[in-house]
Amino acid sequence: MGTTDLETALVTVRSLIERGVTGDPKDALVQKPLRTVTEVLDFNRAKAEAQASAESNLIAIERMKRLMGNSMLQHMVPSTFEAFRDAAMAEGIALSSVDRTLTVFRAACAVAVAERRLSRHHAPVVPYFCTKNHLRAAPPKGRLMEIEEIAAVIDEAQFIHFLFCLIWLASLGCRIGALLDATAAQIDHRRGLIDLNPPGRVQTSKWRPTLPIPATLAPWTEGLPPGHLVQWRAQPVGEIDTAFMAACTRAKLEPGGNTYSIRHALGRHMRSRGVEDDQIALWLGHIQPPQSNETTIVYSPYSPSYLSDAKLAAESFVREIARHCRRHDPLLPPWLKD
User: Fold this and answer.
1) Which three-class secondary structure state does DSSP give residue 211?
2) What is the Cα Rg of the chain in Å?
3) Which of the 8 DSSP states describes residue 225?
4) CB 88 within 8 A of CB 63
């Protein structure tokens, strides 16, 4: 046990037993057991960084280390997590984000137990705070915007990359992260498809679908430079929230609109056009494509009928926006004029 003190040796043996260590304890003695929130998060940091959700994982890790990093794992009780929840929400963090943050911690504890760096008995029970009822009652991430308001934002676009981004968002209704990650190589011009999930990226619960390219978007897919779809001075764009809010301000629109507002508006338009719920959910990435043989054939991206109703609705959505635009034409990219 590396000690001549009997009581210290007994404590060490008890710790080894609790961690499930058997046989020669030499290696296990070098690896000290993880005792605090910070230690278990740092132990799992490399795995968290390797996941598709790396950016949000790292934000969650820093938030937990700041708000409860010194907490001893074996002493954590429900009130510990309730205090964390309250502190995070006091900083403006949504309840759903609190739950996603705790999911990172839950995974870190599971890895530490599997690696025998944390006793199963000392691993805290991490609660869930955000129930399905909370999710149903949560307001949209962006307020619902009318078609006229979206047209006004498009008209206020001062840079080509921002205009380009708005047209793609209106056409596909995808999450902004998927669009900013996308590259020209993800467009299949021959089949008229775009795979919103980059090669090598593992799909998450926020599914990035393969979509048929609407006819209204097709001109905006031609003649693109290699690399990211949304570029500024040949460099990928990290965010457009600032530009979006500035455009809303110039258009004198009510506050609360963001890129999600366009996504919500397209989904609402699809529903008003009678598009089936399954097609809407597949188009927006709320669900992944069905896996049974029968439905895979029906919803295959290579089938002419794949998401056909949703595609037509997306086209009518953009044409309706174009009717209200005065400065920019959503149906014709500037580089194709004259």
Assistant:
1) strand
2) 25
3) P
4) yes
